[in-house]
Automatic annotation (TrEMBL), chain A:
Protein's name according to its UniProt entry: ATP synthase subunit a
NCBIfam families: ATP_synt_6_or_A, PRK05815.2-4
Gene of this entry: atpB
Membrane topology reported for the UniProt record: Multi-pass membrane protein
Record's keyword terms, sorted: ATP synthesis, Cell membrane, CF(0), Hydrogen ion transport, Ion transport, Membrane, Transmembrane, Transmembrane helix, Transport
TrEMBL record, chain B:
A matching Pfam family: ATPase_gene1
Positions with biased composition (Gly residues): 1-10
Ranges of biased composition (kind: Basic and acidic residues): 15-36
Protein name: AtpZ/AtpI family protein
Species this protein is from: Methylorubrum zatmanii
Amino acid sequence: MAVSIDPIHQFELQPLVTLGHIGKQQLAFTQSALYMFAAVGIIALLTIVATAGRSVVPGRLQSLAETLYEFIADTVHQATGADGKRFLPLVFSLFMFVLILNLLGMIPYAFAVTSHLIVTFGLALVVILTVVIYGVAKHGTHFLGVFVPSGVPKPLLLIMVPIEIVSFLSRPISLSVRLFANILAGHIALKIFAFFVVQLLVAGAWGVLSPLPLALTIALTALEFLVAALQAYVFATLTAVYLADALHPGH
Amino acid sequence: MSGDPTGDGSGPEKAPADGDLSARLKRLETQLEGKRPKAAPSSAARTGASGGSAPLGQAMRLSTEFIAGVIAGGIIGYIVDHLFGSKPWGMIVMLMLGFVTGIYNVMRVSGFSGRKTEKDPRQES
């Protein structure tokens, strides 16, 4: 009767194949890596196989792939302008990767890779390093203009420049924490509310109330699907916005 | 979806006018620009591209932007203290600066600050 709840357990990494050790740290092919490979496989299937036919009137899969592509192409174009097109592959890859991982995590018993901070932080780091490296390579010291807001009186710059620098450094943090926190919190909430159903059912007469958390769980599931798609979209949009800074620093 | 940009560029009435590819591409671009507002009237409305969920995304952004500012300030303060041995002061100053940055981030995301009109609409999405 004493069923214990452990909503964190679903996020534990399980090594599938142990590769070796570095110091005390185990190196292993975890289920997280497996899901990432699966996501890449699904994306490849969706984008390569679905568009292989190249029919003028697209079928279902091709239409889906084209819609996703145009959606991101539009976002990138509007955020960065015409010369931002070279970043479209990066943004599209990130969007698809995050989207598929989020959606894979929504399958019951599946593992949500994006609920690990290190994964999302790695993705955010890719974005920020691209911004810095490309910005410096293209504009040299001009890239530092990104820290100088326009139309600010000279004395105020003394305060605004440090703020802008900290703001810039906070970008990878906000980018990664947002995605990770949303997915983590969503999955924990789902688990807890779903568990309420079980707890009420085994509590005798209280079982009458069990449809309440059940309804909430269903609603939360729908919300989580929304969040999964939304977070991928937000991630892609912000990537495009940050890349725009690399293209046109200093306004 | 409306994958007929070539059909647009080589429209029956204007196609033979210029053989120059770049000129045609430029004209195509202006035509596409003319068409685009129908899909997304302004950068503010662009957030509506993902349906009614855009405000929700905005709300999620606001909280993390603020927290990220504070965390970034704290991390920088810790590093400064570690490097220069200025034990409490780096953390104090940088945490305050991070706090300010967090509020500044939130203001920028919500489009609250009047300045930087060029940068704001993009930040807003």
